[in-house]
Recover the amino acids of this structure.
């Protein structure tokens, strides 16, 4: 008998209280892949509102040359 389990839904870290700021390079770099692309919601676990916020913070960090556009 095969048992199927539902995958536990990820909780948005920013709704839980952890904010992302473009000046904190270590936090921002968690949301980009090795090529420098922004990770999608299904991988970050962020809600739509906070995914837009993350994208804006990554773009600001790129413009300030804190993280590269392409690795």
């Amino acid at each position: 008998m095969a048992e199927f389990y539902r995958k536990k839904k990820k909780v948005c870290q920013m709704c839980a209280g952890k904010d992302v700021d473009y000046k904190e390079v270590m936090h921002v770099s968690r949301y980009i892949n090795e090529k420098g692309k922004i990770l999608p919601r299904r991988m970050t676990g962020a809600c739509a509102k906070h995914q837009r916020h993350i994208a804006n913070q990554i773009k600001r960090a790129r413009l300030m040359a804190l993280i590269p556009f392409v690795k």
Q: What stands out?
A: Residues 48-63 form the longest helix (16 residues).
